[in-house]
Amino acid sequence: MAGILGDQQAALVGQTCFQAGDAKNTYGTGCFLLMNTGHEIVQSRFGLLTTVAFQWKDQPAHYALEGSVAITGAVVQWIRDNFGLITRSSEIETLARTVEDNGGVYFVPAFSGLYAPYWKHNARGIIAGLTRYSNKGHLARAALEATAFQTREVVDAMERDAGVPVGVLRTDGGMVENELLMQFQSDILGREVVRPTIKETTALGAAYAAGLAVGFFESLEDLRSHWSVDRTWKPQMGQQRREHLYGYWKKAVTRSFDWLEGE
Question: Hey, which of 12, 183, 187, 190 has its CA 20 to 30 A from 243?
C-alpha cells in the first residue's frame, strides 16, 4: 500500500490543489468543496468543517476547509423520477435552455435539511417565486441554478474563514458535463471555473499519491505537469445582476428554515 486518501482529499490531490487557497468542487449527488489552507488548521466560524488534506511522507500535513451540500445532482434525479419531466438526467440542460432565465423561480432542495453552511436539519425543500408564467423550463433552470447558488454560499464561507480568496474553482464529478450549469457557476461566483481533462479526479489523486510515494513521480511539480484543462468558463454576468439573483436566492433559503417545528 503506497498511498491512502479519503474520497474528497483524493479529488483535491487529483486537481493538484497543493497551495493554500487552491479549491475544488465535486459535483455529484451532492457537492463537496475543499479548500487547501496550507499547514494551518483553520477552525471554521462560518459553518464549515476542518479536515486533513494530505501529507507526503515525513513532511508537515496540509489541512483543508470542507463544505458539503446534500442535494445537487440528486435534484435532477428527483425531477426525472418524481415529476417525470425528463427521461434521462442529461436532458435537464436541454429543458433548462428552453427559457432565457429562471423567470423569478428559485428551488431550494432542502429535502433532508440543509448542510453547509447552515446545518439546519429541520429545513425542507421549497419552490418560490411561481407565477402563471412559470413553466417546466423555469423549474429545470432553477434546479440547476440551486447547485451554483449553494456552491457560492460555501465559497463565501471559506473565504471568510481562511481570509484567502478563491481565484479559480476547479470542478469535477458528473455534473461538470452540464455546460449551462458551469457557465452559471462562473457567473454567480464572478470568477473562472475550470474543468480538467481527466474528470475522475478521485481515482487520479489516489494514483498521484501512490506514484509520488514509490518514486514514479518525482515531485509536486511533476504532478502539476500532468494536470490539464479541458475547458474554462469566464463570468459573463454583470455584478449588479449577479447580486440581484443571489439576493433572491438568500431570501428563498430563509423560507425553508425551521419548516418542521419542534423537531
Answer: 12
